[in-house]
Amino acid sequence: MTLPSVTLPTTASATGDSVTVSATTSTLEAFADTVVPGAKRYSGDAAVAGVAGPPGGADIGFLDLLRHPLVALGPLLPEMAAGLNVAATAYAVAHLIPLPWGLPPFVGLAFPHRTAVLTDLFQRDRPDRLIWILLALLVSAAFDSAPHRHTVEALSNGHPGLKFLGFPAVGPDGRWRCAEFSYGRQLANPHPATTAKGSPS
Known about the structure:
The protein has helices spanning 23-35, 62-67, 77-94, 105-108, 111-121, 129-144, 151-156, 160-165, and strands at residues 5-6, 21-22. By secondary structure, it is an all-alpha fold. Helix 1 (23-35) crosses helix 3 and helix 3 (77-94) packs across helix 5 (111-121). The radius of gyration is 21 Å and the shape is elongated. The termini are far apart. The chain is built from eight helices and two strands. The chain is 40% helix and 2% strand.
């Protein structure tokens, strides 16, 4: 199933421009925002529920990670979004929740209901459970480490997740060095054959 492109109602960017978002993109952004909640990016941002401060799962290049050649999930994104919307529709019908017209069903749910849909998708008796767990793990990876981007480039461009976590900046020589031991003390002496670059020989 391929979802059509839709113009989300009453959406505008920070500059006042209208925003046209495909149903697949808005659905998967809503999924990412449910896993790592954030603030709305602009007035009328339907995909982001806005239940937490910035940044959130919709801000950190989650879809870029899924489309990366080494991940290669791009062709499957419409089917994943369709699966989320089928689950959201079933949940809304079961709980007598009216869905807004013009939005994908998952996007149209309030944040507590989105969370409930994901909770159902993660249950052990679901045959597609691992798909949704993998998708949630990729949201976390995109936020925590930006694996689809070079770390230096991600930091220089202000990657929201790395910035939020306080990831240290690279040194002038392009290397990272820790001024303090992570455990607060040195756990062992370097092997005498360790090279100047830190590699044991």
